[in-house]
Amino acid sequence: MPLGAYLALAALVFAIGLFGVLTRRNAVGILLGIELMLNAVNINLVAFGRFHADLAGVMFTLFTIAITVAEVAVGLAIVIVIFRVRRTVDADHLDLLRG
Amino acid sequence: MTAEMLAFAGVAVVLLASSLGVVLTPNLFHAVLYLAAALVATGVVFLLLDAPFLFAVQLLLYAGGVVTIVVFAIMLTERLVGASIKQASRYLINGALVSAAVFVGVVGFLVQMPPVGPRPPWPDDLTVMVGRALVGAFAIPFELLGVLLVIVLVGALYLARSES
């Protein structure tokens, strides 16, 4: 398959993830959308690295995956704390910092 | 070549269908299961790109780790609230418009892209090269990643600790 096919697939997954981030009310649902978008970026990195025989694509993807796992752990901890304090994970109701 | 195209088409269909499931299903628990399917499909895309090491990392960290944590968080919040969390969506039209605009923008760049030739072969086994790079050119980022993981572990424990 040509490089463009992989990039188009990644762009589609990214757009779907963006749709999820924009439309979900639940904070966990928003996190799931962010996961999809990060995955799309990983596909792009590996595809570019493979078609240029550059190891940096694979290495960057390794680091992205590890950092994403860290991000999910902290994000879910924050969601659990918010839930404990406010009894909701609805992003529309979390407007305490609104000016 | 035809076998690779068939494999790519199959994986693409599974990946896109499960991604749509993640953002569209009303049940949050089902969304996580669709996410697991999407993550495994992404791993198969890595396999198609001759990166079996990344396939293993993807399965272990993403499909194994992230999905477990998210399921844990959903179970915890649902148990605390005592009822299934409803998962309504809003701004569906606006969200679809913005996502479609982003997709069209990216594809606009893709069609202008100069054609890239066939894949050059890796000079060595990929896993060997990754191992060498982790203690060579990427040693400092690798160490910093260890620091980050410790910070995240302590931070998540601190955030989610019990009140007493």
What would you say this structure looks like, in words?
- The complex is a heterodimer of chains A (99) and B (164).
- With 99 residues, chain A is mainly alpha-helical.
- Chain A has helices spanning 3-23, 27-51, 55-86.
- Chain A has one domain: Helix Hairpins.
- Chain B has helices at residues 2-24, 28-48, 52-81, 92-112, 126-134, 139-159.
- With 164 residues, chain B is an all-alpha fold.
- In chain B, helix 1 packs antiparallel against helix 2 and helix 2 runs antiparallel to helix 3 (52-81).
- The model of chain B has no long low-confidence stretch (mean pLDDT 86).
- At the A-B interface, helix 1, helix 2 and helix 3 of A face helix 1, helix 2, helix 3, helix 4 and helix 5 of B.
Question: What is shown here, in short?
Answer:
The complex is a heterodimer of chains A (99) and B (164). Chain A has three helices and no strands.
Unreliable segments of chain A (pLDDT under 50, ≥5 consecutive)? none
Biggest β-sheet strands, sense, barrel of chain A: none
- Which CATH architecture of chain A would you pick? Orthogonal Bundle
Tell me the CATH architecture of the largest domain in chain B.
Up-down Bundle
Question: Which structural class is indicated by helix and strand composition of chain B?
Answer: mainly alpha
Alpha-beta content class of chain A: mainly alpha
Strand portion of chain B, in percent?
Answer: under 5%
Q: For the CA atoms, what is the radius of gyration of chain B?
A: 20 Å
Compute the number of helices of chain B.
6
Beginning-to-end CA distance, first to last residue of chain B: 62 Å
Largest sheet of chain B: none
Total number of domains of chain A: 1
Biggest interface reads:
A-B, 66 and 82 residues
Can you give the helix content of chain A as a percent range? over 70%
Report the span from N to C terminus of chain A.
Answer: 51 Å
CATH fold-level topology of chain A: Helix Hairpins
The overall pLDDT of chain A, averaged over residues, is 88
Overall CATH class of chain A: Mainly Alpha
Q: Please estimate the helix content of chain B.
A: over 70%
Mean pLDDT of chain B: 86
CATH class of the largest domain in chain B: Mainly Alpha
